[in-house]
Amino acid sequence: MIKTEVTIGKLKLKNPVLVASGTFGYGDELIGIVDINKLGGIVTKSLTLKPKLGNPPPRIVETPCGMLNSIGLANIGVDKFINEKLPILKNFDTAIIVNIAAKRIEDYCEIIKRLEDTEGISAYEINISCPNVKEGGLEFGTNLEMTRQIVNATRKITDKTLIIKLTPNVTRISEFAKVCKEEGADAVSLINTIVGMAIDIKTRKPKISTITGGLSGPAIKPIALAKVFEVFQNVDIPIIGIGGITTWEDAIEFMIAGAKAIQVGTANFIDPSTPLQIISGLVKYCEENKVEDINEIVGSIIVESLPH
User: Fold this and answer.
1) Which of 68, 182, 259, 272 is least surrounded by Cβ atoms within 10 Å, i.e. has the fewest?
2) Is CATH 3.20.20.70 the classification given to domain 6-54+72-193+215-297?
3) What is the pLDDT of residue 131?
4) What distances in angstroms separate CA 103 from CA 36, 68, 132, 198, one per listed residue?
5) Which residues of the sequence carry a binding annotation for substrate (predicted)?
C-alpha cells in the first residue's frame, strides 16, 4: 500500500492533489460530477469581505496552450460563504482551504476573524496578487515589505495552516518565499497567473475588457516549474506547486522539483475529473518505481551542478 498522505503545517492531506482557487467554484457545484472525498483538498474561489460582481465581460479568452482571465474576484462574500457553502463543504472527507483576497490588510484580517468562528476549515490560502489601495494600487505580492506586513498580520490571528500564494510577476520569487517563512507562514503556493494579453486583429481591440489578464494553463508550466525549483533551492518552506498541471506526469515533475503538494487549475475546466486521474497516476508511478511513501519524491531532483 502506497503512503500518499502529506503534512503541511497542521494541514494533513490524504494525498498531495488539490484543486486550485477559482477553478472548482466553492466545491459544491461539482457534487455528483467528481468524487470530492477522493481529493486531497479543495481551495475555494477567492473570498472577499463583501460580495463582488467582478469585471465586465469579456473576461475569459482562450489562448494557445492556455487561457487569459480577468474575472475580478467575483464572489459571494465571506458571510454568504459561511452561511450557505460551508455547511455543505464540511460534510466532505477532504481538506477545505479558503482562499482570501482583499485590498487592505485590515480586510484580510477581518475575513479570517469571521472564518475562525466556524467549523470545517483546514487552512487559509492568502492571495497577495491584489492591489493595495493604500499604496496606489501596487500589488501586495510584488513588494517585499507589503508581503511581510500581510503575512505578519494574518499569522497573528490564526493558528490554522497559513499558505501564501505568490505571484510570478517578480524578479526573485524566492526572496518573497523567504519573507513568508520569516513571518511565520506554514507554506507557499506558486505560481499565480502571469500577466498576459490578447488582441482581436479585426477590431484591433484587446480581447478582454481589462486589456490584460492572468495567463494560466500548460503554457506557463515550464515557468512555474522553474519558480518552484528556485524556492526549493533557497528557502526551507513547504511548497504547493501550481501552473499548467494537466497530467500525473506534470504533478511528478513538480514534486521532484520540490513541491510537497500540487494544485490542478485550468485543466478542471476541460475535464473536472483530471485531479482524480492524477491521483491514480501518482499511485501507479510509485508502485512501478518502488516508492513506498510519496514524500520520497519531493525534492528528489538530480542535478550535475547547480547554476550560480
Assistant:
1) 182
2) yes
3) 66
4) 31, 22, 5, 26
5) 45, 69-73, 127, 192-193
